[in-house]
Design goal:
Mean pLDDT: 94
Number of helices: 12
Order of helices and strands: EEHEHEEHEEHHEHEHHHHHH
Number of strands: 9
Strand order of the largest sheet: 1-2-3-4-6-9
Length: 272
């Protein structure tokens, strides 16, 4: 069964739920499932808002599962997905509870509005710490969202950031107490759904022209990511950590991935 399920809550509102336990890794099946939803809605002029959320505890959408990268449908499929989401006539809204990193963060950045749980959401781009680089739009979208210097800190340190920091920097639309998150998003969704669909779509397209990177930049980023995937430094790290982890060890590592990456780098550097 697909890890991505779409339901129609009303003629104007849809909901996408991603379920990929235990740690919400972005897989080829995730990408294909999301692409199927986008294709299903491409000619639907009645839909005005689509909400995205996860049913996996402590994770929204996590980084790419690099151990299964061969199962991905290819760079063009990923680019088609994120560009289509940015250009869709409906408004896309993320409800973020849990870790949102790497490709998952890049997918979230392609959505229009991001509402995060203050207690449970964490964000990051961990690629550089594993000897690769972001390839799904993080290096193109984050500087536009949070500024060049903060984007450099996020990407170069591979650290995790809490929801309050993400809100202060403009990474997310708003951080809210977890017990208020659903109510707040429901109010936003109902308000948007009551407006004229053509006006929503036109205003979104106008803002997109001013704020979003061109597809050519996203294509270059994905090619650079692919080049790093066959670099000696990445292959050496991948070979050194090739043994699969049991679910409990994998969960522990993914819950605090920013710290794990930093400690692993210090060990490789001899504690420097």
């Amino acid at each position: 069964m697909s890890p991505v399920q779409f339901t129609r809550e009303s003629p104007a509102v849809g909901r996408v739920v991603v379920s990929d336990p235990p740690v919400g890794l972005m897989t080829g099946a995730t990408v294909r499932g999301l692409a199927d939803v986008v294709a299903q809605l491409v000619d639907d002029t009645s839909i005005k808002v689509v909400v995205f959320e996860s049913s996996t505890d402590d994770f929204f959408l996590n980084h790419f599962d690099l151990a299964r990268i061969d199962e991905f449908p290819g760079g063009e499929a990923w680019l088609d997905l994120v560009v289509a989401l940015s250009e869709a006539r409906y408004v896309t809204v993320a409800v973020i509870r849990g870790r949102t990193r790497g490709g998952g963060n890049e997918l979230a950045l392609a959505l229009d509005l991001r509402y995060a749980s203050r207690e449970r959401a964490r964000f990051g781009q961990p690629e550089v710490g594993t000897a690769v680089v972001p390839g799904g739009g993080g290096t193109e979208r984050l500087p536009r969202q949070i500024g060049r210097d903060r984007a450099l800190e996020v990407i170069l340190t591979s650290a995790d950031y809490d929801a309050d920091t993400a809100e202060r920097w403009g990474w997310v639309t708003r951080a809210l107490d977890d017990d208020r998150l659903d109510e707040h998003v429901a109010g936003i969704v109902a308000r948007l759904a009551s407006f004229d669909g053509d006006a929503l779509a036109t205003a979104k397209a106008m803002v997109a022209r001013a704020a979003l990177p061109p597809r050519s930049d996203l294509e270059l980023a994905y090619r650079t990511f692919q080049e790093r995937m066959v670099s000696p430094s990445y292959l050496a790290r991948a070979a050194g950590g090739s043994a699969p982890l049991e679910d409990d060890r994998l969960l522990a590592a993914e819950l605090d991935l920013g710290t794990v990456i930093g400690e692993a780098a210090r060990r490789r550097a001899g504690g420097a």
